[in-house]
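User: Hi! I'm working on a homework problem where we have to compare a predicted structure to a textbook description. Could you give me the structure for the chain below?
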Amino acid sequence: MKIVFCLVLFLTFSIKSAEFTFEAYGLINIENSVVTKNKEYTYFSYKNEGVIITNIDRVGESHCAGGLNISRGRMNGDVLCENISGEYYFYTKYSNFNMDPTNNILKFEIVDGTGPFLELVGQKCTAAYLPIQSDKYLFKGKCDIPDANFLRMKNFKD
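Assistant: Happy to help. Predicted structure tokens:
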């Protein structure tokens, strides 16, 4: 019994994760839209430009592009974002399919990065996205990562 208790305690305290978060704010540009007469199918190109703020004291800009469609009440999207902070960057890829178009929770993956953001490559993350008016947005992304990775990111020196 004592061994099991020690094992549980060891696993509880050794499997920790930290949370990398970033927020983005900016402008949406929807172009090249095609809508069928019965409005069952809508296809369009999506681009946005914004600024990002991270919880590792890095700020920068974000540029996204991709395609979205709403087919018979279900949304599909494939978007790639380049997030730049100084000379370093990370790329987020959003591939969300068969979603309710009113759902603002997205899944994404960090597919590339440099400098402190190299620690994020391969991480699966979640985001909340909120369009504001017709051409603005708010975004908050969250990635659970190992504590050691987070500390290396936070303590990264240029």
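For your comparison, note the following. The beta strands are 17-35, 41-54, 59-71, 74-85, 88-99, 105-113, 124-132, 136-146. Residues 115 and 135 are 32 Å apart (CA to CA). Good luck with the assignment!
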